[in-house]
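Researcher: Predict the fold of UDP-N-acetylmuramoylalanine--D-glutamate ligase.
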Amino acid sequence: MKRLVILGGGESGVGTAILAKKENFDVFLSDRGLIKEKYKQLLEEHGIAYEEGQHTEDLILNADEVMKSPGIPKKAELIQKLEEKGVSILSEIEFASRYTDAKIIAITGSNGKTTTSSLMYHILKQAGLNVELGGNIGKSFAKSVAENNFDYYVLEVSSFQLDDIKTTFKPFVAILLNITPDHLDQYNYQFDLYAQSKFRITMNQDENDYFIYNLDDPKTMEMIDQITIRSIRKPFTMMDAAQDAYANNELFRVNETNGDFSMNVNELGLIGKHNVSNSLAAAVAAKIINIHNEDLKRSLSDFKSVEHRLEPVLTIGGIDFINDSKATNVNATYFALESMTKSVVWIVGGTDKGNDYNEVLPFVKKKVKAIVCLGVDNQKIVDFFSPYIDTIVETNTMKDCVEQAYKLASKGETVLLSPACASFDLFKGYEDRGDQFKENVRKL
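Model: Structure tokens for UDP-N-acetylmuramoylalanine--D-glutamate ligase follow.
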């Protein structure tokens, strides 16, 4: 009996444990922190051995294979020891792929992958296909494979998950939305290494599979010829009208061998130029899967934005409050500011990931009238923006932050929470940050 050790007792770890148990592995799960009660219950129901609050090396280093949760850094001492012993380390998406024949639509990118994955799932579900949504979006792919029998999976995949695929994870359709600097602390601060991780989504594809990518993304286009890609290439663009998948400010179209599709951009359910691009990627995939034009148009029109991603909260006294807490890097905030049409009071701050704010400066100069910092240490933000923005306020609770933003905004303006930083200095995660924002806005 092969021994599978799972490091991390969250959604992906527990899901993998349940699938491995079903497939007759000797399973052991170890989490250095505390495991949530709901996950402990699942482990106990399935009779899976586990430990929390420590990693007992004797019980881990004797594994045949190790599934590590995406949050555990490659540099961790335990991971180094496993590698020295030659133990195969893999991700949940790799392990689960062995046990399903479903067609996989995998979506990666520095920004927009949650929105695009949710939209893709919505399109397939509305068209009546037997489909599930999973991966990085918060539902375990492995657990679903263990318990259900879907024909299609739409998976949001991160670079960390792709780092630990081997030979099995092979999407029928792979979508790479964009590559901008993120998580560079995990890639020796080398942008190329991070970009190569994203391209691993194509690694096991063959000539019967499809690779959808963004012609307008500079890093993707710089790297694409350095990578061996065997699948059928399907680019999309908002710059080159000669391409099959193209959109501008008015027109949205995809020409495929199985028929052409077009609609007006203003009929799309999602707002913002970046979301036109995301919708285009999803539409290309939908045409590959033979979704009927009327179903595709309906789904693209009635899809609403994902929670914590440019999510309209309330309009109070003529001031719009928008929750974009999922913008945990500068590029995500760039897209948020780009899509703003009114004067903005911008809430920014949190745990800095080596941010370079020059990227958003043109939008800040043009659209932002005041900045409210929300973080333990806001010095970098204050120093960078004070030459350009007269009003910068520092706060370290969400209640204070929302009240200050409300005071600074006037009728016809927008209060935008788009922090450009991770949330762990003050919150449990970006969801907690977004939920607290919405709760405090409702109390105004």
